[in-house]
Amino acid sequence: MDSLHPSEPTTAPVVENQTTGAPDIQALNARIAEKSRFVDAVRAEMGRTIVGQADMVDRLLIGLLANGHVLLEGVPGLAKTLAIKSLSDTVAGDFSRVQFTPDLLPADVVGTLVYNQQSQQFTVKKGPIFANFVLADEINRAPAKVQSALLEAMQERQVTIGGESHSLPQPFLVLATQNPVEQEGTYPLPEAQVDRFLLKVVIGYPTKEEERAIVRANLQQEGLPKPQQVVTQQDILEARDLVRSIYMDEKVERYIVDLVFATRNPEDCGLGHLKNLISFGASPRASIGLGIASKAHAFLKHRGFVTPEDVRAVAMDVMRHRIGTTFEAEAENITSAQILTELMDHVEVP
User: Where in the sequence is the domain holding 200, given as residue range(s)?
Assistant: First the structure.
């Protein structure tokens, strides 16, 4: 993701102590606490239509604030579409949904050139990718060519049609969904393409109480309420700059690197038995993703500094799709999540 590139400039400066030059954590904390108040308003407004699924809502906000994208995996009917639609309503952003099917073409997603007989010229017809919030529903049902067209737009934040580049609107968030149950007629995303997503979130069923509330809300005469705008798109763009200004201590940086290196060399932290279960470890993109996602998590907590708990809170979603499991692990029904859990339990926390 280009948003995670270390060379990208940050417009929001870190508040510094004038005498020492070190970050003034107290002043930064106060600034973040003030500027992050809209987060609670967004959560409350989305809570009017989304019952439960608080973690999914927070992960969507982390993706939005970190300028990344989110891959959601869950069975149908868990409010994945409703969640991103509700988020777009709270920001008053443009929303589009693309139902991925085997006969979909790249032009159906990014757009194409259309010949105008009256002017005898080709004009650009933009596709549904030109929106602030894009739902790529069942992304693994479309062929590789369509998947790559979407992922190129996600990476470059622009689309080329007829030799001319068109910038995508900002903020820009892609929520892609996958159904883990049905595999017939699907085209699984290659590891290199899955790696483009900042987060891969696995969502489960609601509790009994939550499901009763869901049934009650959907059966009422007036139907589900429509979320109202509580934050502007400009506020989101400013918040992204503030997220990058959040302070991260060197000890936390080392902890992030230690976690990522543990996926490559588990024997270094006394877990040599995992070596035969991991086919490849997380890439440097995981380290960058852990850093920016941890800062976004701290922002959600109204803090101006990152703690190891912020890292641990997002580590599973940042790394579960970035490590590969061997045939031996699959034969023993050991998942990447189980491997990560064991690694996180053994890597020393600062």
Answer: 51-56+67-230
